[in-house]
Specification:
Layout: H1 13-24, H2 29-36, H3 40-51, H4 63-69, H5 73-80, H6 95-101, H7 105-113, H8 128-134, H9 138-151, H10 154-170, H11 174-183, H12 185-189, H13 196-211, H14 214-222, H15 238-243, H16 247-255, H17 270-276, H18 280-288, H19 303-309, H20 313-321, H21 336-340, H22 347-356, H23 371-377, H24 381-389, H25 404-411, H26 414-422, H27 437-443, H28 447-454, H29 457-461, H30 465-477
Length: about 475
C-alpha cells in the first residue's frame, strides 16, 4: 500500500482508523470501526490488522512509533509478533529512537528483543544510544550499550561509543559519562586495535575543555586522557579552557601540571587566547602562575598585541597593569595601535594605549599607512581626535603619498574630515599622482566635502565648523 496523502488527521487513534477505512473504500467498514471505538481490545486488533499494511499514517508516524509514543504495549507486541522486523522509519525517526525519547523503557526492551538494530540512525544522523546519552536516559544507555556490544566487536563499536560519550560530555552528564567509560573498559582491553585512549584524549581537549566542567575533566583524566597534550598536536587543556574563560578549569589544568607557556598549533599560549577574548580573570590566574606577561607568540605577537587584535580594552588594561610593554611590536613592526585601529576598536582602548605610551606613528624610516590613515579610511572620527590630541603628524604620507585627509575625503567621511581640518590637516597636500584632497572631492562630485575643504583655516582654528555654524545660527536668532 502506498503512503497515504490525507493532509490532516484527527487527534485520536480511533479517528485514524476511520480515515484508513475511508481510504480503503470497504463497504460497511466505517460503521464497524465506529463501534470499535467503544471496545479497547477490538481497537488494538484492528490496528494490528490494518496498521501493518501502511508504511505510515500522516501525523502519527508508523504504527510502531504510535504504539511506543502512546505506551500501548499490547499493540506493540502484536505488531512484532511472529514476523520479521518491520520497516518503522518515518519522518526521520524510528520506534527505537521514540522509545528512548519517550522514556518508554519497556518498549525499548521489547523492540530490542524483537531484533531492532540499535545502529540505525535518525534524520539527524544520531543513533538511539547517542540520543539516550544526550537526553539523560541512563537506563536506556545501559540497555543499548549491551546490545551494541553483543552485535559488534569493540573496534567497530568505537565510533558509536565516541559519539555517545561526546553527547554526554556536552550535556555535562557525569553519571552517563562514567557509565559509558566503565561499562566498556573490559571490552576495550580485549583488543589490541583500540583507539579508545585517543578518543578520550580528543574529547577532553576538544569538548570537555571547551565546556569547562571540572567533574567531567577529572573523570576523563582518570580514564587516561592527558591534559598536557592532545592527539592533534601541541594543544593542552589550558588552551580551550582559557579561550572560553573557564577560570576553575584553568586552575584545575594548572593543578595537573600543564605547562602554561606551551604554544598550540597556531603558535599561541593560553595567555594569548585569554587576552584575545577578554577573559580578565583567566589572565590574572595565568600571570599569577608565572606566565611572562610579554611571552611571545606566533610572528612575535605578545598577549597585549593579541588583546589589541581582539579589541579587548579590559584585557589590555589588565596586561598593562601587570607590566606589559605598551611599545611592543610584532615581527612585521606593527604595534598595538597598528593592529587594532583597522578593526574599529572602542575609543577607550585607543585612549588606554596612548596614555600607556604606545607610539601612534611608525618609525621614521618606515613609509606605510599609519594608525591615523586607518582611522581616517574607516571613518573613526573619535579615534582620529584622540590620535591628533596625542600629537601625531597629521600630514604624514603613506607609500602612495596620501595623507589621512586624502583617505577620509575619498571615503566620504565628513566627520573625520572636519576633525582632521581642525587638527590642521593640509587640504592642498599632494599625493603621488599630484592630487589634493580638494581634487579628490571635486572628482567625486561631493559638494558637501568641497565646501568643507574650501572653508578658511580660521574657521577650524576657532574650534571647529560645527561650533562656528552654531554661533552664526545663534546670531541670526538674536
Amino acid at each position: 500500500m502506498s503512503r497515504m496523502t490525507t493532509p490532516t488527521l484527527a487527534r485520536f487513534p480511533s479517528e485514524i482508523l476511520l480515515i484508513i477505512a475511508s481510504y480503503l473504500h470497504v463497504p460497511g467498514l466505517n460503521a464497524l470501526l465506529q463501534t470499535c471505538q467503544r471496545f479497547h481490545w477490538l481497537f488494538d486488533a484492528l490496528l494490528y490488522q490494518l496498521g501493518r499494511k501502511c508504511i505510515s499514517v500522516p501525523g502519527a508516524g508508523t504504527p510502531l512509533i504510535w504504539a511506543v509514543q502512546k505506551q500501548r504495549t499490547s499493540v506493540l507486541k502484536r505488531l512484532l509478533k511472529g514476523d520479521e522486523w518491520p520497516s518503522d522509519k518515518c519522518n526521520g525517526t524510528t520506534a527505537l529512537h521514540e522509545a528512548v525519547l519517550c522514556d518508554n523503557l519497556e518498549a525499548l526492551k521489547i523492540l530490542l528483543d524483537a531484533g531492532a538494530d540499535p545502529r540505525v540512525k535518525d534524520a539527524g544522523k544520531e543513533s538511539a544510544l547517542a540520543e539516550a546519552a544526550g537526553n539523560k536516559k541512563e537506563d536506556a544507555v545501559r540497555l543499548l550499550l549491551n546490545r551494541h556490544m553483543d552485535l559488534q566487536p569493540w573496534t567497530e563499536f568505537e565510533s558509536w561509543w565516541e559519539r555517545a560519550l561526546t553527547r554526554a560530555v556536552v550535556d555535562s552528564n557525569e553519571s552517563i559519562c562514567r557509565l559509558l567509560l566503565e561499562e566498556t573498559e573490559s571490552a576495550h582491553r580485549s583488543t589490541t586495535n583500540s583507539n579508545r585512549s585517543e578518543i578520550v584524549n580528543g574529547i577532553l581537549h576538544f569538548v570537555a575543555g571547551w565546556y569547562g566542567d571540572c567533574g567531567i575533566i577529572r573523570l576523563l583524566c582518570a580514564y587516561g586522557a592527558d591534559p598536557s597534550r592532545s592527539s592533534a598536536g601541541s594543544r593542552t587543556l589550558l588552551h580551550p579552557t582559557a579561550h572560553n574563560g573557564h577560570v576553575d578549569a584553568v586552575k584545575l589544568a594548572l593543578e595537573y601540571g600543564v605547562d602554561p607557556t606551551v604554544r598550540n598549533n597556531d603558535g599561541l599560549t593560553a595567555l594569548h587566547l585569554a587576552a584575545g577574548d577578554g577573559h580578565v580573570d583567566v589572565i590574572g590566574v595565568l600571570i599569577d602562575a608565572g606566565v611572562p606577561v610579554d611571552i611571545p607568540g606566533e610572528r612575535g605577537l605578545t598577549p597585549l598585541l593579541f588583546a589589541a587584535l581582539g579589541r579587548q580594552d579590559a584585557a589590555a588594561r589588565r596586561l598593562l597593569d601587570a607590566g606589559a610593554d605598551a611599545c611592543a611590536r610584532n615581527e612585521s613592526g606593527f604595534n598595538a595601535l597598528d593592529l587594532t585601529i583597522p578593526m574599529s576598536p572602542p575609543p577607550a582602548l585607543i585612549d588606554l594605549l596612548l596614555k600607556a605610551g604606545t607610539d601612534a606613528s611608525p618609525p621614521p624610516e618606515e613609509i606605510r599607512m599609519t594608525p591615523l590613515h586607518w582611522a581616517a579610511r574607516t571613518g573613526q572620527f573619535q579615534i582620529i581626535r584622540l590620535l591628533c590630541d596625542a600629537g601625531v603628524e597629521v600630514d604624514r604620507a603613506d607609500q602612495r603619498g596620501r595623507t589621512a585627509l586624502h583617505l577620509a575625503v575619498r571615503e566620504g567621511h565628513t566627520d573625520s574630515v572636519e576633525v582632521l581640518l581642525q587638527a590642521g590637516a593640509d587640504a592642498f597636500a599632494l599625493d603621488e599622482r599630484g592630487r589634493t584632497p580638494l581634487v579628490v572631492a571635486t572628482k567625486a562630485e561631493n559638494k558637501t566635502m568641497v565646501d568643507l575643504l574650501l572653508r578658511p583655516p580660521w574657521v577650524y582654528e576657532a574650534g571647529g565648523s560645527k561650533e562656528i555654524d552654531a554661533e552664526v545660527e545663534d546670531s541670526k536668532n538674536e
